[in-house]
Design brief:
Blueprint: E1 4-6, H1 7-14, H2 18-26, E2 34-35, E3 42-45, H3 46-60, H4 65-73, H5 77-120, E4 126-130, E5 133-139, H6 146-162, E6 172-175, H7 177-181, E7 190-195, E8 204-207, E9 210-218, H8 225-237, E10 241-242, E11 246-252, E12 264-272
Antiparallel strand pairs: 1-3, 2-3, 4-9, 5-7, 5-8, 6-7, 6-11, 9-12, 10-12, 11-12
Length: 273
């Protein structure tokens, strides 16, 4: 047909599939100018190409198909400005969210790289000055088994996602010193996610700055006792008094490897001479 494009031609020129054009027709977003009653073939006018360009541009900047359809039913400069300004606000929000996610991923990568470098050498106790930080925490219920630890961990993540809290993509646990001395190394009392300082939630506490004795444990969580033993022996041999519960930070875990032998956990006690 003269001055008309078949669906195949329009698909080729616009680099869009025939199936997409058929779907746009079905939802009333972009209908052909003419449908042959004999064979059902769809044909589009030259003027419609500009209309399709507009749809694809609107889709590219993030409008949903429903929003595009609503906008283009009777769109004017005023109605378009309202939609586009709203979309700018949404884009700015997504950029802010992506920047936050990027910083969290970078933090995780740096931690993993540093831990990998350290554990490639002989794993030993390190005395360091730890900076103050904040954690979002949930209590672990009795009998403090892996099941209860996992439930508390899921509560932390669920809360952080639901309330859009500025957490880091890392989990950890607090094990009371008394239980460690009793060789109950895996019975955590709290599970936590490191988080930026915020007043968005009440179950946030500050871990103070201070001198710490730390060690990287490599391997599954059930074997963590051997690293605790090394840490306790070091503190005793060097006349260091342990003055806190244990803080465990998961550096490499189920999020980043399927092999439990590759798990890396940083164990940290606050100490004083």
């Amino acid at each position: 047909m003269d001055n008309y494009f078949s669906i195949g031609e329009l698909s080729k020129y616009q680099n869009i599939s025939k199936q997409t054009l058929i779907f746009y027709d079905k939802i009333g977003l972009f209908r052909p100018a003419y449908v042959d009653p004999n064979n059902g073939y769809r044909y589009y006018s030259s003027k419609q190409i500009d209309y399709l360009d507009t749809i694809l541009i609107m889709k590219k900047i993030g409008l949903s198909l429903r929003e595009i359809r609503d906008l283009m039913q009777h769109y004017t400069i005023d109605s378009s400005l309202v939609f586009l300004r709203k979309q700018l606000t949404d884009i700015d929000r997504r950029i802010e969210e992506l920047q936050l996610i990027r910083s969290r991923l970078l933090h995780r990568c740096v931690q993993m790289e540093n831990a990998k470098t350290s554990t490639e050498k002989e794993t030993s106790v390190v005395i360091e000055n730890s900076a103050s930080r904040y954690i979002l925490f949930h209590e672990v219920k009795k009998p403090y088994s892996f099941r209860e630890i996992s439930i508390a961990s899921k509560k932390c993540f669920a809360q952080s996602f639901q309330e859009h809290l500025p957490v880091f993509f890392q989990c950890g646990a607090v094990v009371p010193l008394e239980r460690i001395r009793q060789r109950r190394f895996t019975e955590a009392s709290l599970v936590f996610l490191p988080i930026e300082k915020t007043d968005q939630a009440s179950n946030i506490k500050q871990i103070p700055a201070g001198k710490c004795a730390s060690i990287y444990h490599v391997g599954d969580y059930m074997s963590i006792g051997r690293s605790y033993e090394k840490l306790l022996d070091y503190c005793q041999a060097n006349s260091l008094q342990i003055i806190s519960d244990s803080y465990e930070f998961c550096i490499n875990d189920y999020i980043t490897t399927y092999d439990e032998n590759e798990y890396i956990t940083k164990i940290m006690f606050y100490v004083k001479p």
